[in-house]
């Protein structure tokens, strides 16, 4: 689990004692890729996976994955040691397929939310109908007033990425709600 | 055993006594009682005093529509709530309740003097009484109104409870679990649709709970109910919520539900919220809210013991309480006859049934006769007596519309019914229209504005049988509309009580109508006479009548009073009701706690508090914080005994003399990247960017299209195609949004992309003569000499082993650097620099010192020295505008006539003639303080500080034609004195910028 | 809280994901310097302020981040349609016909 002093301290006051597992994932590589649709083939080749074109859908290959956020926007996740390789692969296609590949590994913190009450827990802050978020997909949306990206990994397993400065707020709410669930409410 | 408790009746647990207190006195009730039912079981009708006249009042109803019986409830320290309806609050051991609006006691109340003075308090009395003399307003009227205003008293300590909220999406939401709602839920539930059935009561069943004598589908009503609720509980796709009130119906089938979770519990479970606000989004909504009974309007109809007949029936059948042993029933509707029969069968000696109508169905009169009840059709009621509880009523025979000779009949309760009004509040929230139906004498739903269905008494169908059939059909219709298939079962009903009636205005009387206290809005003490007076004084719109009289403005939101008020107003106006119209129902349906609306947003979650990666260090080291946009930022770092000024003076000195360290992580950062990046920058910012070299920085100024300064920041060119843009802390999101807007909608052809990197980077600023000395040993990959890395440079290198974007820039006028490292390393880098910086007495400083240091140099803060009406020239920053550029955002506006005109306010420096005086920020500036008022304002002070470095105060200001006034004296009127100031340039310290070049 | 159809995501989603962005179909002039003061004033400040159907812009700011256009009735708050930025102004008569 995460060993960053800043994050630990921010969360130290909050203990989770509810039925839903809440945990912070260690940082990994995260890029925002912006590229016009005409150059998708080159980008897919550079990344080694076929970039999905329907907003909210994902594709993965090995430890690399890409979530389509918008018509020209993808979020790429990869292992921590893969950063330089991805940068190099995209740098090599830049002249032919201009794009923006921006490192945002540290921008968001990832919270794991897991358990059969996970959807209920998320519903304290998510106005969207989570039934419509299919397993394997992801979506940028809001939790309370914070922008988040939610990945649904299984029916009852989610990852929620939240901008670092909003973490204490979001984490606090999740834990209050988890205690409500623990109390049977 | 109380004389009013009937063991054979009710759904409460008769063998489970529960004690609570009312005004300090112990009251014994039973598990399942409300405060009202328990008090009534003990023969207590007096529960409160009215708002205006302080008249004694009892419960008139048995549900959430109750206008009179408002009480304060206390569970424990801090858990006090005023204005709880005694008819809704369930009792539990230890509950403390108190009456309201009375002093010194409920029985002997001083405020009741208002009742004698009622002629003064007629409609519009606020407007008439408190008009003049004007001098009375502050000293007499306002204190009087403030003392008299308000229901109950406010809690005085913080609410210890927590309040929850959730979103929920369903196919079908059903509001109201009476027979129609349950039938709808059964039909819809069987379709497999996701169904939510909510009811405000503690139990589901609605009118079925008060009608145990009805047979449904071959079994008793209550057995049928239990079986059907079990069936619903067994459906995985159906959720049942009790104690849950639909408070508002909003756009596109969003309905707000407030669920009370713990107010009925003896002990509070750890972690349980008191209430939860549900935001429901339903594909289809079914409204099965039933109908509300209307009071009759006659003289002294507000005496304790006067109650709605249907409510009396509910008290008997649900709570095992006879509200009186010798009641009289007065009615214009059949339903009250059934109440009379139920009470008589439970042992009450019903003194008479008085019906306003000429005749009633023979079955009713036969049933009455069978029970030995005196029947008086074509009679009216003209008054009541009894101080704190009704003792007798005056009954008069009717000859046409005239009341004949009165007869006095003794009684201990008066049960009234003026017919029923469909409960269409939620439907009205949607702007659905209503139509008057003469058969039912009621407004019924007409045109729908949302995907909703209304069934049962809510659309004027009386009786359980009709409600079940109609509810089932609504369930099928809703399920079908939501894409499901189902059928409704038939539930044959025996012994149903349907009934009809008529709708009346004030009852005929043999007394002077001018003296009648015939109440319509009980809580606000509005009488029929008030309505007529309002109309005669020119209030011809029903909305004006409402506001002039306050009819319908009580916490019951007109549930009791609207229809009677409308009938009387229509009569006074000589128009049919349909032409007068209804006032608008607005959410919430019933009073809702602030806690429920606030939800989790209190205490530390009141709003988002954004924190930087270095925030913890600042907290550990005693920083005082200030909010900046959603962030909290270290404001200053006081040492023991230091106040703001002492700490800031020390931090300024330390930074100017040696080294200061500052957390600048909140600065907005945008990565502008792509082949057209430089073209995009040229179009957005006032400055020219084409010739800015790689690894160089420039101060950028961003305008709105109106030509006014919107944002600023230092921008570094990382490569030909990539810029690291910084924005103000508060402007980050706004600027990115604006840039995206231009890019997506005006210049979609540009190959450039924007990414917010505000939170990717932690930013640490080092300022002071020792800044390089500290930093240099940590830097790899960049020659730190002044020649290799001059002022306004940027480098991608490593600092303390962390990948970094290193800027040589200064917002203080000292030699300065800003180190950006990935946020995860922010605190580690800070601590490295902190430790190594001890040799230079490194000083952490906060936003206040930052503000002082930049003001000494005349650097503006957008939003402080600018206010949305300041152009680059106004700010003395024409140098930042590219002279050869042909277009950029806002450029055209700079030649608009009023922006090019002379005499605009310009940013200047101000030095007080008395160097120790620090001007107030925001203070106005005048040329001559002796001129008559109102004085001509020349401008105002935008920034003002004590400068420790200069040993005097400094200020920035915007002044009309300011740059032409250099050296002039102007005046700043401040409390107690007029301060003389000299107009100067904006740079107070090191105008040659020598200190940057160290 | 409204539900809004994002023409890029092709999904109908709750209002907190969106931000209002003013009147639609007001193009920034290609060369502002060529405009008279009056023309520039009109571009800057003059808006329709419609009572009824209104062409307006929204941004799916907490979603795909795209700006798009909508026709919304300012009286009933009902959306008649939404469409992508750059697409032509839809015919109001046809939209109103479709509502019936």
Structure commentary:
- The complex is a heterotrimer of chains A (185), B (998) and C (100).
- Chain A has 185 residues and is of the alpha+beta class.
- Chain A folds into two domains: 5-27 and 107-182, Probable tRNA modification gtpase trme, domain 1 (Gyrase A, domain 2), CATH 3.30.1360.120; 29-103, Alpha-Beta Plaits.
- Chain A has helices at 5-12, 40-47, 83-93, 118-122, 167-182; strands spanning 21-24, 29-35, 58-61, 64-70, 73-78, 99-103, 108-114, 138-143, 146-154, 157-163.
- In chain A, helix 2 (40-47) runs antiparallel to helix 3 (83-93).
- Chain A starts with a helix and ends with a helix.
- The model of chain A has no long low-confidence stretch (mean pLDDT 93).
- Chain B has 998 residues and is an alpha+beta fold.
- Chain B folds into six domains: 1-158, 2Fe-2S iron-sulphur cluster binding domain, sarcosine oxidase, alpha subunit, N-terminal domain (Ubiquitin-like (UB roll)); 163-291 and 422-486, FAD/NAD(P)-binding domain (3-Layer(bba) Sandwich); 295-418, FAD/NAD(P)-binding domain (3-Layer(bba) Sandwich), CATH 3.50.50; 518-581, BFD-like [2Fe-2S]-binding domain (Arc Repressor Mutant, subunit A); 635-854, 2-Layer Sandwich (Gyrase A, domain 2); 856-869 and 890-997, Elongation Factor Tu (Ef-tu), domain 3 (Beta Barrel).
- In chain B, strands 8, 9, 12, 13, 14, 15 and 29 form a seven-stranded mixed beta sheet that branches. In chain B, strands 42-43-44-45-41-35-46 form a seven-stranded mixed beta sheet.
- In chain B, helix 5 (179-190) links the parallel strand 8 (163-175) and strand 9 (195-198).
- The longest helix of chain B has 18 residues, at 464-481.
- Chain B is elongated and about 115 Å long.
- Chain C has a single domain, classed as Folate-binding superfamily (Folate-binding fold), CATH 3.30.2270.10.
- Chain C has two helices and six strands, in the order E-E-E-H-E-E-E-H.
- A four-stranded antiparallel beta sheet of chain C has the order 3-4-5-6, covered by helices on one side. Chain C has a two-stranded antiparallel ribbon with strand order 1-2.
- In chain C, strand 5 (67-73) and strand 6 form a beta hairpin.
- In chain C, 31% of the residues are buried.
- Chains A and B meet through helix 1, strand 6 and helix 5 of A and strand 8, strand 15, strand 40 and helix 22 of B.
